[in-house]
Design goal:
The protein is mostly beta strands. It is built from no helices and 11 strands. A hairpin with a 4-residue loop joins strand 7 and strand 8.
């Protein structure tokens, strides 16, 4: 069992930055694929970024070059550094943990989810 708690969301102006954190419980954090998804009002939840247990990363095209995902296995924590934020990045951001790297872009690839943190980017 893994419990995930996100933090770091808030209101920022376009062009600004935020760093989200995802704190995980459990002693097997380092073995999990970790990901960030987001859901904007009226839209489906979508993949943002993922980091493998090995440290390899993948990004959605819409955030590549602006967002950086990382993990600190010693602290059982994952991060999402978000720079050059745009109004279209406004959403609830969820962190997730899973085992299926073949499905890292899909929600079904993840077994555990946090409660979400709101990110609002003003124009």
């Amino acid at each position: 069992q893994v419990q995930l708690v996100e933090s770091g969301g808030g209101l920022v102006q376009a062009g600004g930055s935020l760093r989200l954190s995802c704190a995980a419980s459990g002693r097997t954090f380092s073995t999990y694929l970790m990901g960030w998804f987001r859901q904007a009002p009226g839209k489906e939840r979508e993949f943002v970024a993922a980091v493998r247990w090995s440290g390899g990363t993948d990004y959605a095209r819409s955030v590549k070059g602006r967002f950086t995902i990382s993990r600190d296995n010693a602290k059982n924590t994952m991060y999402l550094q978000m720079n050059s934020l745009k109004p279209e990045d406004t959403a609830v951001y969820y962190c997730a943990a899973g085992r299926s790297e073949y499905r890292m872009y899909q929600q079904i690839g993840y077994d555990y989810w946090g409660q979400g943190t709101q990110v609002t980017v003003g124009a």
